[in-house]
């Protein structure tokens, strides 16, 4: 899976092409400060003065880096997919390497920061399953009835509350559950869902 970086976002990040790898690392550090909500506005003015551009251009580039880190973290991109995604921003190998290093070093921290904006809903913790087959009974002399017994454990963020859910499913219902989960996973990674999530940040 690759990131979709729109044309206007590429334009905002265009200033990165004029920087060396150290300059890109500095911009990445500012982006992390902004993600923390602790960036000093004077930083933008100082960087703009050194580069001979307006503070708005610097702010746009930093916002673009925050967007890329957030989207890549939410999509749980591998380092290879991230590298392929950001190659559209610069043909310079040192630039791509600096952005990959930024992602690799900060994705876990970014994931924790972004989780603060999520709903306080129980999340998956573990799943145990057992396959059971009824091979015969007084009512069922021939044939088999396979079933799957699931024990789903969930946890609530910021608390020790644990939920245990036991499900007994026959094969048709298990296949329906599997299809529903696959559809939900695909929907969560769609562009429309990402736009909705960005609106609530």
From TrEMBL:
InterPro entries in UniProt: COMM (IPR017920), Commd2 (IPR037354)
Residues covered by the COMM domain: 123-192
Pfam families referenced in this protein's UniProt entry, alphabetically: COMM_domain, COMM_HN
Transmembrane segments: none
PROSITE patterns, per the entry: COMM
Domain of life: Eukaryota
UniProt-listed PANTHER family: COMM DOMAIN CONTAINING PROTEIN 2 (PTHR15857), COMM DOMAIN-CONTAINING PROTEIN 2 (PTHR15857:SF0)
Protein name as it appears in the record: COMM domain-containing protein
């Amino acid at each position: 899976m690759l990131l979709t970086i729109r044309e206007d976002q590429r334009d905002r990040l265009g200033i990165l092409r004029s920087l060396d790898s150290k300059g890109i690392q500095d911009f990445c550090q500012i982006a992390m400060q902004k993600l923390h909500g602790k960036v000093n506005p004077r930083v933008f003015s100082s960087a703009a003065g050194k580069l001979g551009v307006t503070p708005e251009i610097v702010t746009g580039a930093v916002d673009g880096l925050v967007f890329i880190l957030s989207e890549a973290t939410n999509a749980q991109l591998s380092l290879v997919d991230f590298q392929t995604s950001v190659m559209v921003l610069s043909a310079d190998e040192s630039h791509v390497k600096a952005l990959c290093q930024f992602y690799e070093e900060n994705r876990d921290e970014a994931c924790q920061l972004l989780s603060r904006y999520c709903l306080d809903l129980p999340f998956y913790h573990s799943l145990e399953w057992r396959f059971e087959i009824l091979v015969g009974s007084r009512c069922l002399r021939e044939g088999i009835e396979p079933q799957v017994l699931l024990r789903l454990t969930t946890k609530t963020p910021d608390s020790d509350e644990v939920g245990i859910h036991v499900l007994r499913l026959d094969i048709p219902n298990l296949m329906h559950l599997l299809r529903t989960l696959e559809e939900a996973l695909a929907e969560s990674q769609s562009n429309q869902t990402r736009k909705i999530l960005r609106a609530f940040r």
